[in-house]
Design a protein that fits this description.
By secondary structure, the chain is an alpha+beta fold. The chain is built from eleven helices and twelve strands. Strands 1, 2, 3, 4, 5, 6, 7 and 12 form an eight-stranded mixed β-sheet that branches. Strands 9-10-8-11 form a four-stranded antiparallel β-sheet.
Length: 336
């Protein structure tokens, strides 16, 4: 085995899903015809470093450090699956870091991690990925092989980057950039913020329950409501006459519908946190991702109130500003 000393460093953005989540599940759009979400990537990232090892071991740094003689013995499912897919069985080191936790945030961190792993391994092995759609599809495929249950939006959000309208149907998945002005983007950034609930999500049980509920006729109307609301959200963003003051109300309606699709989406603690923010002037918000924990997105019509609430939440809760990003998975540096 030759020691090539190749080293590549990449990052993939996390995302906020504003409306339509749940309709990106194949069990929904393959039966109902279409699903639709509006989402944007933000300036929080997962980072992946992949390099040749001087010896034949495989080492992966995540919550722990694993060193094994062959990739198949690595416990970290995403690293193992990506490395094996590209035939990297020995002599590699992978380092995974993130601006937030790598799983359970509700910000699509798992897909972001896999997207960087795939792009990095493909470049190291000189196996070109056709385009961003091919990258997103491979992310979904390898995530599934690694044991993840979920929808299709996160893979496209992190691969493409930016503010997107994503449509899901039987013929395929299409991504269109949302036509939103710089002024509107700044308006949203001044009024949106993230609150960490101090709980990480256990996504598998929540997604399993959500998938089962899609076949429940009493629940299907809520999924349709989420899809309809996503188009209303898109219209508000793109229309010259769209009232951004309505964003909070749309998020609030989305949150009510989302809770109706799955009893595990929220809990007493999350409901009390959200209700307390509403009483203090937040006009709307929602738990991001499948729910059950992670980050809560909040919107207020007054930027000064946002600053006040962030101050009041600390130190019991960490509140972060929202800054949108336009780039998807990208190489930051490579040695070759």
């Amino acid at each position: 085995m030759l020691y090539d000393k190749k080293h590549i460093y990449l990052r993939s953005p996390l995302r906020i899903s504003f409306a339509g989540g749940g309709t990106d599940l194949e069990s929904y759009f393959m039966k109902e015809g279409t699903g639709h979400v509006v989402s944007s990537t933000i300036d929080l990232y997962n980072y992946v470093s992949i390099k040749d090892m001087f010896d034949s071991n495989v080492r992966v740094h995540h919550a722990e450090i694993e060193t094994e003689s062959i990739t198949s013995r690595i416990k970290h499912p995403y690293s193992r699956t990506a490395l094996e897919h590209y035939g990297i069985f020995k002599g590699a080191e992978v380092i995974l870091t993130s601006d937030v936790m790598t799983t359970g945030s509700g910000l699509g961190a798992s897909s972001a991690m896999m997207s960087s792993l795939i792009m990095g391994c493909s470049i190291l092995r000189d196996k070109k990925i056709k385009d961003r759609t091919a990258l997103a599809e491979l992310v979904y495929r390898l995530e599934t092989e690694a044991g993840t249950i979920g929808g299709r939006q996160d893979q496209y959000a992190t691969s493409f980057g930016g503010f997107n309208s994503i449509t899901f149907d039987k013929k395929g998945i299409s991504v269109r950039k949302v036509k939103i002005s710089e002024d509107k983007l700044n308006h949203l950034e001044d009024r949106l913020f993230l609150v960490f609930t101090n709980m990480a999500r256990e996504i598998k049980s929540i997604q399993t329950n959500l998938g089962n509920n899609i076949t429940d006729e009493t629940k299907r109307k809520y999924f349709k409501g989420l899809k309809d609301l996503s188009y209303e959200f898109l219209k508000t963003l793109e229309s010259k006459n769209g009232r951004l003051r309505d964003i909070g109300n749309l998020l609030h309606e989305s949150w009510k519908l989302k809770k109706s699709t799955n009893n595990n989406t929220s809990n007493q603690f999350i409901d009390e946190l959200y209700d307390s923010l509403r009483k203090k002037g937040v006009t709307g918000g929602k738990i991001l991702g499948a729910g059950g924990g992670g980050f809560l997105l909040a919107y207020t019509n007054d930027p000064k109130l946002k600053a006040k609430l962030k101050y009041e939440l600390y130190p019991n809760f960490i509140a972060l500003d929202v800054k949108f990003s336009s780039k998807g998975t990208e190489v930051l540096w490579k040695s070759f």
